Amino acid sequence: DGGITQSPKYLFRKEGQNVTLSCEQNLNHDAMYWYRQDPGQGLRLIYYSQIVNDFQKGDIAEGYSVSREKKESFPLTVTSAQKNPTAFYLCASSIVGTSNEQFFGPGTRLTVL
Amino acid sequence: AQKITQTQPGMFVQEKEAVTLDCTYDTSDPSYGLFWYKQPSSGEMIFLIYQGSYDQQNATEGRYSLNFQKARKSANLVISASQLGDSAMYFCAMRVYNQGGKLIFGQGTELSVKP
Q1: CB contact under 8 A, B105 and A44
Q2: Bridge partners for A87 per DSSP
Q3: So what's the pLDDT on residue B90?
Q4: Are A84 and A76 in contact (CB under 8 A)?
Q5: B25 near A CB under 8 A
Q6: Peptide bond into A8 cis (omega under 30)
Q7: Residues of B in contact with A102 (CB under 8 A)
Q8: For the segment B27-47, what is each residue's pLDDT rounded down to a tens digit?
């Protein structure tokens, strides 16, 4: 079955630690995205990538970093510079093009202790 | 700047009745797409329906239809014959052609279907 997987489902982090969230897709999509969702809010874009080895900052990129070494993978690192990282993180992918919907993974819920 | 506004934080509807969820958008770009997603309590985002800015007819997908009024910049979602499983958060989103494919989301509307 084609789809997007994210791991882990739940993640706990101590203050000052970097953590990496995994996102893998087997849909052969060129574009991949990372969103953050806070309670009762919509999604905000962190980073996106439309091609391997290239990515762009979204609206709230500070304190986050990404890489895109393979088409299938787009990991997100939440660094210690992110002051309020507790949130729900969603990864998405799509075919490049305005009319194509984004397919979302199941999400990772990050809690800072 | 592009923006999506959903003015209904919460809505109730009786099972088997129709419900309309409001969405207005703001963009100066002539080429854009409008999407509706459903988010159950599990957290996953489920794509429901799409409307392109140049589409002449309103989009429909099963029980979902999009009431697209371009002059008023509104893209309301209509759910017909509501079911208990429709209870969820619903998000309206916009993609602008020259913005790298990113989606801009509204704040969402929580729909509760009563038996």
Answers
A1: yes
A2: A110
A3: 98
A4: no
A5: no
A6: yes
A7: 35, 47, 103
A8: 998 889 999 999 999 999 999
Assign A98 a pLDDT band (cuts: 50, 70, 90): low
Which of A97, A101, A106 lies nearest to residue B44, judging by beta carbons?
A106
Q: For B64-89, how does the pLDDT look when each residue is reduced to its tens digit (9 = 90+)?
A: 999 999 999 999 999 999 999 999 99
Place of tokens 């970097």: A18
**C-alpha B9, offset from chain centre:** 13
Best A35, A47, A98 member to test B by mutation, with max B CBs in 10 Å, is A98
pLDDT band for position A106 (cuts 50, 70, 90):
very high
Interacting residues of A43 by C-beta distance below 8 A, sequence separation 6+: A35, A36, A37, A90, B45, B91, B93, B103, B105
The mean predicted confidence, pLDDT, of chain B is 94
Q: Percentage of chain A surpassing pLDDT 70? A: 98
Interface list for A 27-46 with B (CB within 8 A):
31, 33, 35, 40-45
Q: How far apart are the first and last CA of chain B?
A: 41
Length of chain B: 115
